[in-house]
Amino acid sequence: LLLLTILTIWFFKYRRIRYVHETGLSMIYGLIVGAIIRYTRSTNKEPSQAFAGLINKTMYSSSPPETLFIELPTDSDYTDNQTIKYSLSGVVETTQSDALLEQTVTFDPELFFNVMLPIIIFEAGYSMKRRHFFKNLGAIMSFAFIGTTISCFAFGGVMFGLTRLMDIDFSLNNCFFFGAIISATDPVTILAIFHDLHVDVDLYALVFGESVLNDAVAIVLSGSVEKYGELSAGTFDTKAFFSALGNFLAIFAGAFAMGSAMGCVTALITKYTKIRDFPLLETALFFLMSYSTFQAAEAAGFTGIVAVLFCGITQAHYTYNNLSTESKQRTKQLFELANFLAENFVFLYIGVSVFTFELAKWHAGFICTAFLGILVGRLLNVYPVSFLLNLGRSNKIKGNFQHMMMFSGLRGAIAFALAIRNTSSDARQYMISATMIIVLVTVILFGGFTTQMLQWLQIRVGVDDELDNIQMQEPTRSTQESQGSQGSKKYEKAWLVLKWYNFDMRYMKPFLTNSRPTLIETLPKCCLPLAKFLTTEE
Question: What are the transmembrane regions (predicted)?
Fold first, then answer.
């Protein structure tokens, strides 16, 4: 399927066809193959099955144990009984042939979360256009944090109100959990078209930055909502609410700190060792340090996805400057390739899963309600937040930009991975079916009409990125002190960004890279011995 997708993408690019992006194409191929597997499967083979039941009076049906250890006797009199470990797969509601089909075409959801997503998220941080990202940092963080939270609760409110009219057992906590996971936008299709057409860099930065950060927020928010549900026992509990809020802040801050720290450690290793003389080893070190950030954060109880995102941003900002020319090219190409394959694999699998994933419950009213919920959530996210931001911005977020951001709220790999990770209850099975259809429709339909929407909204394309860079160049060190007021104007009152930029240029970059000015020039004279020790010949 990936080979077929690649060849079709080449044909579409060659013919300049932009109606279908590769991700939408992957989903279409997945749908076709899923339908073929579903309706042409053989029912002759039947897997061997052994049935066991618990003989005590404990009821596990509502919350079955994740793992069972069963002691089985052996044939030999000289060998002790063996203990066998079984893991929870889900409720069995299919025939034996269906179970075999599911085993054949279904992957472990942990594969997505532990292998695919770290690569996709790291590459997003590593390939980020940092200048435009930081120029619009205030707006991006407002959309990602405030907007995503508004979207989550607006969606949850719509779902709770309308599911009361259906014959579905869907609690308020389930509504907000679904709102958290479905608030993760993934406009990969639209961003690819933006890149090809060289759309206005500020719009690109807003859409890209919001999607990257809001993925991280949605992941942590869904965990916090789940934790609140465990503590509140179905009713509003003030203590549980603040506990969940503290959990959200602690996990996000911890993951941010761990990801940034791992990036800084990699920068120090590449700066103070001669590993750059061996580009292959340097690239391997860079890859393993980056991926181990995800593992370390998960092991520490934080969110690996958030950690690996900020690791990618830190690696691009510091470590990249220390790499040899060969490693710079290799790391960019390695993660770009891995991201391309992982992303298309996920979208292919979504297409196949529509027909073959058995642990999904389908309800047309529930799916339509979910579409209404994401529309309301997106409306209450983009327009009110933009209005509030424009009150303090000299470079206003224009109306056509806001409409395009509204249109760009596609759902993708993150929402699917969060939904498929747990399908043990009826509510979760309704979520996964709705999520698959939402991803399918938004990626194929909205992605296909992106070019027409840009023309209709009269958004400029063909923008020279380098020309925009010249217009927004940061003040150089020699003019920082004398032109502080001009620098502030260039940063459009982004006081915090300007302060961080000055601190970064004077202390962080000289410490973590070989850039100038050196620490000898920026640190106080009393720290001169330390500055000389930390300054390399390069």
Answer: 19-39, 140-163, 175-194, 241-269, 300-320, 340-357, 363-383, 404-424, 430-450
Residue type, 303: T
Please check whether residue 356 is in contact with residue 101, taking contact to mean a CB–CB distance below 8 angstroms: yes
**Number of neighbours of residue 421 by Cβ within 10 angstroms:** 15
Which residues are 171's β-sheet partners? none
pLDDT digits (tens, 9 = 90+) for 168-183: 888 888 899 999 999 8
In the chain, CATH 1.20.1530.20 sits at 109-335+362-457
Angle, CA of 432, 43 and 424, to the nearest 5°: 25
Inter-residue contact 377 to 150 (CB < 8 Å):
yes
For residue 420, give both structure tokens.
């498929």
Token pair of 528, please? 């001169």
The fold adopted by the segment(s) 109-335+362-457 is: Na+/H+ antiporter like fold (1.20.1530)
Token output for 292: 């181990």
**Nearest CA among 173, 157, 151, 177 for reference residue 369:** 157
- Judge contact between 480 and 502, C-beta under 8 A: yes
- Read off the DSSP letter of residue 278: S
Angle at 124 between CA 217 and CA 487, to 5 degrees: 85
Q: What is the pTM of this model?
A: 0.78
| Backbone torsions φ then ψ of 115, nearest 5 degrees | -120, -55
Q: Cα separation of 32 and 34, whole Å? A: 5
CA 375 to chain centre: 20
CA–CA distance, 122 with 536 (Å, rounded to integer) = 29
**Closest among 288, 277, 289, 290 to 323, alpha carbons compared:** 277
Spatial separation of the C-alpha atoms in residues 169 and 165, rounded to whole Å: 11
Long-range contacts of 25-29 (CB under 8 A, 24+ apart): 26/1, 26/2, 26/344, 26/347, 26/348, 26/351, 27/347, 27/348, 27/350, 27/351, 27/439, 27/440, 27/443, 27/444, 28/351, 28/444, 29/1, 29/4, 29/5, 29/348, 29/351
Write the pLDDT tens digit of every residue in 477-520.
Answer: 444 444 444 443 444 445 667 787 888 888 888 888 888 888 88
Q: Is the pLDDT of residue 355 over 70?
A: yes
- Rounded to an integer, what distance in angstroms lies between the CA atom of residue 112 and that of residue 416? 9
SS3 (DSSP) at 80: coil
Cα gap 285→283, rounded to integer Å: 5
* Residue 155 near residue 147 (C-beta atoms within 8 A): no
Per DSSP, the three-state class of 82 is strand
Contacts of 140 (CB under 8 A, 6+ apart): 133, 205, 206, 209, 210, 213
Residues pairing with 70 in the sheet: 84
